Amino acid sequence: MMPQNEYIELHRKAMAIVWITMRKRERKKMIGLKAKLYHKQHHKHQTKNDEKTPQGAVPAYLLDREGQSRAKVLSNMIKQKRKEKAGKNRSIKVIRTGKRKKKAWKRMVTKVCFVGDGFSRKPPKYERFIRPMGLCFKKAHVTHPELKATFCLPILGVKKNPSSPLYTTLGVITKGTVIGVNVSELGLVTQGDKVIWGKYAQVTNSPENDGCINAVLLV
């Protein structure tokens, strides 16, 4: 014979299963803010822990490590400072676009660069690398090592930037960059009495700090 109270327990269990199934179906259909709020509440309920963690408690897998050594702490500090410095002096800045500012595929050059006269800009919507006109230089102060004189000469192009091949492609000018300059004004000639039109020069300063490009002619 089945005890009288058991059918009530069975009914409760059956109803609980039905309710859980219904909630699961509802949860699958939820979208937007309602879904976010429900999942947050559900997660909080699932991960609820009434036991208070004592102050200064260490997990079991870290019990063998009593504390970090002084050298390790110093090493981590130096690494952190380097990261901060790199972030501060980053020459390509991420630009967020779109209605919600979620797209981050555009970049803006924050260092001095050279853009030729024949450069045709893409439509702003499709432009990946943005080079502000305020940082685009057309002339450089070039010093001739033998004549000991400085001339303001037009830049023809960026030959090589030692920092990165990408900088060379974009025409970014930093310290140590080799640029091509128009030296036709200097009246330099070859052994065959032909006028030298262009020569290479190496940048000796940081143009983004000084506001001008200083270079030495490579004779």
UniProtKB/TrEMBL annotation:
The keyword Cell membrane does not apply. Keywords: Nucleus, Ribosome biogenesis, rRNA processing. It comes from Nyctereutes procyonoides. Coiled coil: none annotated. Pfam families: Ribosomal_S8e. One of its GO terms (biological process) is ribosomal large subunit biogenesis. It comes from the Eukaryota. This is Ribosome biogenesis protein NSA2 homolog. Belongs to the eukaryotic ribosomal protein eS8 family. Ribosome biogenesis protein NSA2 subfamily. The keyword Nucleus applies. Transmembrane segments: none annotated.
